[in-house]
Amino acid sequence: MTAIRTLAEFGSTAAVGPLRCGATLDDIAATLGPPWEIGPVSKRRRWPRLFSYGDVELCVCRCRRVTMICVQTWRDVLELPVGETPPAVFAGSPTHAEVTAGLSATGCRFGPVTEHQPPGQSALRVDSNGVTFTFRTASGSEPLLDSAGHWIATHDCAPPAAGGGRDDVPADRTSF
């Protein structure tokens, strides 16, 4: 497995292995082990919270469902949970040409994102599922992938499972 293939599969499936929007953190942890907890999204609220598996960040609702996946690719080295323990390690910052070739090889239809792009940034969006690949651009060089993300705007937010404790960070790492 290569980083480009993993990113292209993310583009075509909106998932990185078991990491997908709508999955529960408990189900993911049962497969990959406990995530690294980054912390709350806001200083004012306990939830949603950010967790990660290597360079894949998850935004998780208070009901413990994943609402956003972001693959950080701007680092020199990428750690991606592609079924191996520890995560697979790849060179970071894939080029625009590598990403578009990978997406094309999987049959993904995609197009440029033209609205709301600040200077020094460009983006591609997969037509079927909205996975977005954001590139940083510098004059005279090929754009490099900064991140790839997918999110859901709404979901059925059920209360946390019985015995899950307060709407707080779990006391143990066996239940999220």
Question: Any key phrases for this structure?
Answer:
single chain; 176 residues; alpha+beta; eight-stranded antiparallel β-sheet; two-stranded antiparallel sheet; 12 strands; 16% helix; globular
The largest β sheet comes out as: 8 strands, antiparallel
Structure annotation, total helices: 3
**Which structural class do you get from the secondary structure elements?**
alpha+beta
Q: Give the rounded overall mean pLDDT.
A: 87
Any idea what the radius of gyration is?
17 Å
**What's the oligomerization state?**
single chain
Looking at the structure, what is the overall shape? globular
Instruction: Please mark out the parts with pLDDT under 50 across 5 or more consecutive residues, or reply none.
Output: 169-174
Write down the secondary-structure element order: HEEHEEEEEEHEEEE
